[in-house]
Sequence to fold (218 residues):
Amino acid sequence: MEKHDHPTILCDFDGTITRQCLCDFLYEEFASCGLKYSEQWADGSIGTKEEIESSFQFIQASQQEMERALATVDVVAGFKEFYNFCRDNQLELIIVSDGLEWAIRYVLSRVGVVDIRVMSNRIFFEPQGFRFEFPYYNPEARQTGVCKRDIVEAFKAQGNHIVMIGDGRTDFEASQSADFVFARDALWEYCQVHNLPSYRYNDFFDILAYFKKPENLY
Fold:
């Protein structure tokens, strides 16, 4: 990674900060349809918006009931330490996820991470039921609710050096526009095929060790 004083770090959540997808976890726990729409998303039949809206039609649980279940979800080793390192070194760390901001913030709050920017899809718990907003949706990229490529390119247009952290297919296109990628699983394979500047990691202690090397951080 080239030396830059303050790179902007865009980090995926599902499969990256947690090993599991929070939406799939909730569908399995509470949706009478199970993973029906998630599987349709996985085979490309529908996009994230339809997956989330359709699946939640089959959920009767309250916000509190779902949060009690989410309390059992662990974050990947080293994330809190990496978050602290970024904060202490004035490095902007932003969660960019195709999941739900509410669930992400709830899981992070349980490890003491509360003051972090999250760019994701939104759910609102209202008397008449669930309501959703997709503020980062691009109709030309209908497979995802959050177009990460647009987010990366918007930050780069402001002159930012972009470092991405991710694991899967919602990160593919965005990784093409990033300056450097920390990758694992399907994203690592994608980076290798497309010859993208990248580093393979297993957990956030690996990423933290990379950043702590003076030749890599600045």
Remarks:
- Residues 3 and 215 are 7 Å apart (CA to CA).
- The chain has a mean pLDDT of 93.
- The longest helix spans residues 79-88.
